[in-house]
Amino acid sequence: MNALLIIDVQNDFCAAGKLAVHNGDKVIRPINQVIPKFEHIIQTQDWHPKDHLSFASNHEGKSEYEQIVLPYGEQVLWPDHCVQGTTGADFHPELNTLHTQLVIRKGFRKEIDSYSAFFENDKTTSTGLHGFLSSLGIKRLFMCGLATDFCVKYSALDARKLSYDVTLLTDAVQAIDLNNSKDSALAEMKAAGVDFISSGEIDTALNG
Ligand code: VGL
Ligand code: ZN
Question: Does residue 6 have its Cβ closer than 6 Å to ligand 1?
Answer without folding.
Answer: no
